[in-house]
Amino acid sequence: MAIHDITTIEDIKLLVNTFYDKVQKDTYIGVIFNEKIQKRWPEHLEKMYKFWQTILLEQHTYSGSPFPPHKHLPVDQSHFDRWMEIFTETVDSLFKGIVAEEAKVRAANMAYMFNYKIEYFRNLEKKL
């Protein structure tokens, strides 16, 4: 099968399913995801399809705020680094093109912002 760019919802589902399958099995970040999501993986995956479909295909199917569920996770920069490593490997193994590159840029920006905000709220709570 030739590697192509991300162009359809089927591509998004392949990306999301492959990525989160790796995440669930990962010895470093898998425990955090599995503990938080537990038996709600189907709902989480469905939400992720819509999130990435909205961002990458500009088909507005996602609504909501992605940060709040992550606010109190026991994570730091090293967890986001591992998340990005798995995400980048997954994208590169499945897709090639402008949208695939955009997916990696968007994921990196999101990882940076989530880590920054988690640290910000942690430091704020320490001061209170």
UniProtKB/TrEMBL annotation:
UniProt keyword annotation of Transport present: yes
Membrane-traversing stretches: none
The keyword Ligase belongs to this UniProt entry's keyword annotation: no
Keywords from the UniProt entry: Heme, Iron, Metal-binding, Transport
InterPro entries assigned: Globin-like_sf (IPR009050), Globin/Proto (IPR012292), Hemoglobin_trunc (IPR001486)
GO molecular function: heme binding; metal ion binding; oxygen binding
CDD domains per record: TrHb3_P (cd08916)
Stated name of the protein: Group III truncated hemoglobin
Provenance organism: Flavobacterium shii
Lineage: Bacteria, Pseudomonadati, Bacteroidota, Flavobacteriia, Flavobacteriales
